[in-house]
Design brief:
Its main location: membrane. Belongs to the major facilitator superfamily. InterPro entries: MFS (IPR011701), MFS_dom (IPR020846), MFS_trans_sf (IPR036259), MFS_Transporter (IPR051788). It comes from Paenibacillus lignilyticus. With 402 residues, this protein is mainly alpha-helical. It has a single domain, classed as Up-down Bundle (Growth Hormone, Chain: A), CATH 1.20.1250. Helix content is 86%, strand content 0%. The chain has 16 helices and no strands. Helix 10 runs antiparallel to helix 11. 54% of the residues are buried.
């Protein structure tokens, strides 16, 4: 039963990842077809991310009221309906309206499942959870590329993804009763208590000094939030504008560019699969640092004029980003205390979605005023700020423990 349960959680994250990569892959064709400006994709991305911020902030109280299983089911239905609406939308106004439930559905399931796994499973499960998000994010551009190339229709791509989402919703509905049963089993499992004891022991000193403090006043919290802000800013900016960059700056066809963006998400997916095994031997902190260095290397390669070096750079960015987000999330209970982890993870995800909301549109505005060729420079700047913030957290917590 426990194996079926974790598989359901992984499937839910596949459903979360598929829509995240669709818009950027479809936009080189979708934008002109809808009569939208080049930068309008940034506005849509901002509305979607705004919905995720709202739902992630309220996810804790929603889970307490109706349970993680029902939240997952409702969220999947919301995203499926919104995607079907995208496929049928007659104008950009409808795209904006439908972007709201798409974001609300994504945010609730994301925050709820991340908190559950961070508190109840070891680091490799967190990496694999986000690996399955990458599976979904990789599938999205592949499907969109196929429908653009073979059917000359981005709408059919959205319809296909909507069908997949509704199918997952049926699976979630059929297995709804498992959530409470598995929760009761895990509560009685001594291994669950061992995970909790390990986290409590690692965070004991921090809890003793900060249990009554405001979360933002705790050492390292503000810097962690900045790292989340720019992590999601980088991931979303490359995902949203990567295809447009390859079309506009590298003169690729739209379907070929969508395929390469799929490989970018594939790099994130493969990286998280591998990271899940490495976490058994290597700390989250070391993996996060290595990932940042690899992503910076990929950003530099994206500047190179020679193919396939800049395409390899795109994949390296994905591989480098892979361990950062799940690693930072999983470290939360150990770094800042279990009693703060639920609220802090909600804060982290809200700030992360703020990065998704603001930074891709910011790049869209910059590119509109200048050129799409500035993408690698902006990506490198975002990566640099993220790395500096993450290293600052390590330094503050190390000083606090001495």
């Amino acid at each position: 039963m426990a194996s079926i349960f974790i598989l359901i959680i992984y499937l839910a994250f596949i459903s979360l990842g598929i829509p995240d990569s669709l818009l950027g892959s479809a936009w080189p064709v979708m934008g002109p077809d809808m009569g939208a400006s080049f930068g309008f994709a940034g506005i849509l991305s901002m509305v979607i991310a705004g919905g995720t911020i709202i739902s992630s902030l309220f996810s804790g109280s929603l889970v307490q009221r109706i349970g993680t299983g029902k939240i997952t089911l409702i969220s999947c239905c919301l995203t499926a309906g919104a995607l079907l609406g995208f496929a049928m939308a007659p104008s950009v106004i409808w795209l904006i309206i439908l972007a709201i439930p798409l974001g609300l559905g994504a945010g609730a399931i994301d925050a709820a499942l991340n908190h559950y796994v961070a508190e109840n499973y070891k680091a490799h499960h967190m990496s694999w959870l986000h690996c399955f998000w990458g599976v979904g994010a990789t599938i999205g551009p592949v499907l969109m590329s196929y429908y653009i190339a073979e059917h000359d229709s981005w709408r059919d791509g959205y319809t296909a993804v909507s069908v997949i989402q509704f199918s997952l919703a049926i699976v979630l509905f059929a297995t709804l009763s498992l959530w409470k049963r598995v929760a009761a089993i895990r509560a009685a499992d001594p291994r669950t208590h061992k995970i909790q004891e390990d986290q409590d022991s690692a965070a004991a000193q921090g809890e003793a000094t900060s249990s009554k403090a405001n979360l933002l006043q705790m050492k390292g919290v503000k810097q962690t939030l900045v790292a989340f802000l720019f992590y999601c800013g980088v991931e979303a900016t490359v995902g949203l504008w990567g295809a447009s960059y390859l079309v506009g700056a590298r003169e690729m066809t739209a379907e070929t560019a969508a395929g390469w963006v799929s490989l970018y998400y594939g790099g994130i997916t493969l990286g998280r699969l591998i990271t899940g095994f490495i976490t058994l031997k290597v700390s989250n902190k070391a993996l996060i640092r290595c990932g940042q260095i690899l992503a910076l290397t990929g950003g530099v390669m994206l500047l190179l004029p020679v193919s396939p070096l800049y395409l390899i750079g795109l994949i390296l960015i994905g591989l480098g980003l892979a361990p950062i987000y799940p690693g930072l999330l999983h470290e939360t209970p150990a770094r800042f205390g279990r009693e703060h982890s639920a609220k802090l993870i909600g804060h982290q995800m809200a700030v992360a979605y703020t990065g998704t909301t603001l930074l891709p549109p910011l790049f869209g505005f910059i590119a509109t005023q200048t050129s799409i060729v500035v993408l690698p420079y902006i990506v490198l700047a975002f990566l640099a700020v993220m790395m500096i913030s993450a290293e600052r957290v390590n330094k503050l917590l190390r000083l606090n423990s001495n």
